[in-house]
Design goal:
About 45% of the residues lie in helices and about 10% in strands. Among the domains are: about 90 residues, Glutamyl-trna Synthetase, Domain 2 (Glutamyl-tRNA Synthetase, domain 2, Orthogonal Bundle), CATH 1.10.1160; about 110 residues, Arc Repressor Mutant, subunit A, CATH 1.10.10. The longest helix is centred in the C-terminal third of the chain and has 18 residues. The structure holds glutamic acid (GLU).
Length: about 500
Amino acid sequence: MIAETRGPVRTRYAPSPTGPQHIGGIRSALFAWFFARRHGGQFILRIEDTDQKRTVPGAIEMILESFDWLGMDIDEGPLQGGEFGPYVQSQRLELYQSCARQLVDSGHAYKCFATAAELSEMREAGGGYDRRYRDLPPQAAAELEAEGRPGVIRFKMPLSGKTVGQDLIRGQVEFDNTQLQDAVLLKSDGFPTYHLAHIVDDHYMQISHITRAVEWLPSFPLHLRIWDALGWDKPLFAHLPVLLNPNGKGKLSKRKARFADADGTSVPVLVHEFIQAGYLPEAVINFLANIGWNFGDDREIFSVAEAIARFDLKDVNPANSAYPIAKLDWLNGQYIQAADCAYLAGLLKPVLENAGYQVDEARLRKVAPILKVRLKTLNDVVDMAGFFFDDWECFAAPAPDILMQKKMDVEATRRVLQAAGPTLASMKDFSHDQQYLVMKALAKELGFKNGQVFGTLRAAVTGQKVSPPTFETMEILGQAESIRRIQLAEASLNAET
Ligand code: GLU
């Protein structure tokens, strides 16, 4: 049995700033964050920018914005500071260099002077690096050094035996040392590789649990050996399953994932794509938490606080999961339905504004409650309810094909509109409940189905086939405006025919 915690829990997310934040990384970060919060510990953001060629300007800001949007607070990091900083690896080069020197001095690592030509020869011969500088006599190494020959520092991996590690999710894992190469720890430009840098940082930042993608599992034995060679106590490890494409084949792509077995629909994979697509952060968190972990009790919907109270790394399923993106719309719809109206209105406002509407907040507060059960994403508000925010004076009656309901012709539609206008005008109480009763009676009187009458009115007052409920809509438009629109529809029908 592996002890679950040792001292204060400190977990970290350690992305390379190579572009916009991918959802797979956030899923790993979420589990680390849940775990830290569950144990009253700290969650640290560390930027791993040692591969300077891949570093993209602005990526750190995008990572921070993603955390902000999701409401995942960071205790220590490049922006937040903290007592173990700096939290950006390119600002810690001397520390890595001195640890690499320490490993060389203690005989656990060596300077390798292999040239690019030598390395490519080895590759062509079909093998990896053949360790030709591993046992160079110190004198010869000193001479090459004196010549100014560039070199890297490589770790001396044991040449036989096994390395055994413990993983909180996978239990004991064993590796044959002969399968491992003498990995580079420090490059000739003085930058460390991931292998060295993350260990040095996880040690000095006092990380208690390393949670990272299972792709790092093959390097785990190398890392365990480096920890030992440095003489440091190891943290605990959890290699997290990764997300696969929605069809279950291959790792979820870095760019737009595609349903390879369906119609090529693109799905969001970057955090900003979720924002742009109109998803709620709490729905996205809930969605991600359900991948590779489950709340139990057959519950798919739970709050962040509930997840934190239950989360345990050892309950994470080791198997990689297909990206269940098809569930997100449903989940998002559930969150919209449950949302507080004022909060929802606040989320809808910028969406409408981005679509070019001038948003009257008082009106939006009336509209938000009637949209709740109909929106899958926030963006749906534009098509569904944008008409509320158009200039009412410019409202134009819809074309006959929108006005005419199933099994109705122009004449029948005209009869409904002609009768509805004066009936609605005679109402004292224009509440939607009353409208419903009155229009139901009218349908009966005219010999139409409720749906035919209600649908005709919907089209007449909204100009659309799909909208929020008709009577709630008319209540918000008001009696005079609703009747005006019904008259406009009637007139346009007369003009057309
Ligand atoms: N920078 C590494 C990556 O992005 C971090 C892996 C880790 O969490 O240790 O894959």
